[in-house]
Amino acid sequence: MNSEHDTPGTGPDEARRSFLKQSSLLTAMALVPGPLVQAAAAELDEKVAAVFEKIPLKLEVNGVKHKVSIEPRTTLLDFLRENLNLTGTKKGCDYGQCGACTVHVDGQRVNSCLSFAVMHEGKKITTIEGLAQGDKLHPMQEAFVKHDGFQCGYCTPGQIMSAVACIREGKADSEGEIREYMSGNICRCGAYSNIVAAIQEVKGGGQKV
After folding, report:
1. Strands (E), the chain
2. Cα distance between residue 112 and residue 124, in whole Å
3. Contact 121/106 with Cβ under 8 angstroms?
4. Burial of 184 (0-12, 13-18, 19+ CB in 10 A)
5. How many CB atoms lie within 10 A of CB 62?
C-alpha cells in the first residue's frame, strides 16, 4: 500500500511495473532472430551513408588529372586504392604508425591513411607507381633492389617514398640522421641496415630524386 507521501507514478508499485517492462523489453530483444537485427543494422547504415553526400574533387595523381565525386569521409589512401586502383600504396596499421601508406603531396611525404582525399583539392599526388619513368626505375627503387632493402616487400612502397623525401628534405647526411628521419616507416622483417645503405648510395651518387 502506498504511503501518504507517495505521489502518483512514483511509488513502489510503479517502480516494480517499470522494472518488469524493461526486463520484458530486454528479453524480447534477445529473442529477435539474427537476420532481423542484421536487416535493421543495414537499414541504419544506409541512412547514415545518405548523410555523406558525394562532393566534387579535382586533383592530379602521378601526372594525371582527375575530376571525381567522393564521400567526404574517404581517406586519401582508400581513394587511391579503391577509386584509382593504385594498390602500390599499402594499408598497414591504418593509424599512421607504420608508414606503409606514405605518398607525396606537393612533394611532401604524407601518411595517406590519416588524410581525407577532399583535403587535397588541386594538389599533386605522387604514389610509388609514379616514381618510375616507364620501364626505367627510379634511382631509389634501383638502390633498394641492389641492396636487398626489402624482404616480404609489404612496407617497401612506403619505405621508398619516405627515402626519396628524406633526401629531398636534406635529412640524409649521416646514418644516424637517415635512421631518425626514416623512423616513421616500420619494417617488420628488419631490413633497416639495407634500407640505410640504399639511401646512402643514392645520396652519395648525387642523383636527382
Report:
1. 55-61, 64-70, 102-105, 108-111, 124-126
2. 13
3. no
4. middle
5. 16
At 3 the pLDDT is 47
**Angle subtended at Cα 131 by Cα 126 and Cα 136, rounded to the nearest 5 degrees:** 160
pLDDT-above-70 percentage for the chain: 75
Nearest-10 crossing angle of helices 139-146, 156-168: 120
On whether the CB atoms of residues 127 and 88 are closer than 8 A, the answer is yes
Amino acid present at 174: S
**Whole-model pTM?**
0.76
* Residue corresponding to grid cell 622483417: 189
Label residue 47 by pLDDT band (50, 70, 90): low
If phi over 0 gives left and psi between -120 and 50 gives alpha, with beta otherwise, what is residue 121? Answer: beta
- CA-wise closest residue to 80 among 53, 106, 109, 113: 113
- Has residue 72 got a pLDDT over 70? yes
pLDDT at 22 over 80: no
